[in-house]
Amino acid sequence: MFLDRRSDKHGQRVDAALEAEVAAEIRSGQRIRAEDWREPEPVGDDQHAPYPRGGPAPGIGEDLDAGEVEMRSELARHLDRNAFPADRAALDRALTARYAPEPLVGAVRDRLPGGRWFHNVDEAVHAMRG
Q1: Cis bond leading into 40, ω under 30°?
Q2: Residue 78 near residue 95 (C-beta atoms within 8 A)
Q3: What is the radius of gyration, based on Cα positions, of the chain?
Q4: Orientation angle between helical segments 88-97 and 102-111, nearest 10 degrees
Q5: What are 43-59's pLDDT values in tens digits?
Q6: Where are the domains of the chain?
Q7: What pTM was computed for the model?
Q8: Which residues, other chains included, contact 120 with Cβ-Cβ below 8 Å and sequence gap of 6+?
Q9: Contact call for residues 87 and 52 (beta carbons, < 8 A)
Q10: pLDDT band per the 50, 70, 90 thresholds, residue 90
């Protein structure tokens, strides 16, 4: 039997009430609160602004291009955290066991340096850069 738990802190009734409270705001994409004090504070001078709509895709910055972000996403989709730390051979075995697409497995075999241990997907993608 599958038990759907939406939160570890609240019961199902409280979760449903909280979800209903913000449903209109999520659907509209606009602020719905009449009281200003209920609105989140704007971004401060020492904080980075979130990506604006139409801005760069999340994850693309000065260190990863769009292809590398795609590679990181594909690896993360086929590998879980239990696969790490791992070397190239262990990642190859994990991807093969999870029936990852052959181009992804081939990229790990060909581009990932041997003799190193990787602690997460991001380290592996950065090592593939060469």
Answers
A1: no
A2: yes
A3: 21
A4: 170
A5: 677 766 555 555 555 55
A6: 66-128
A7: 0.53
A8: 81, 84
A9: no
A10: very high
Rounded to 10 degrees, the C-alpha dihedral 34/40/41/44 comes to -150
- CA distances 46 to 42, 43, 49, 55, Å, are 12, 8, 10, 20
The residue type of 75 is L
Distance CA 42, CA 31 (A): 13
Question: In sequence order, what DSSP letters do the residues of 66-104 get, joined into one string?
Answer: HHHHHHHHHHHHH--GGG-SB-HHHHHHHHHHTT--HHH
Rounded to whole angstroms, what are the CA distances from 68 to 11, 13, 28, 42, 124?
A: 40, 42, 33, 32, 11
Rounded to the nearest 5 degrees, what angle is found at the Cα of 76, between the Cα atoms of 130 and 52?
90
Report whether 66 contacts 99 (CB < 8 A).
no
User: What does the pLDDT look like over 113-125, one tens digit per residue?
Assistant: 989 999 988 889 8
- State which amino acid sits at residue 66: A
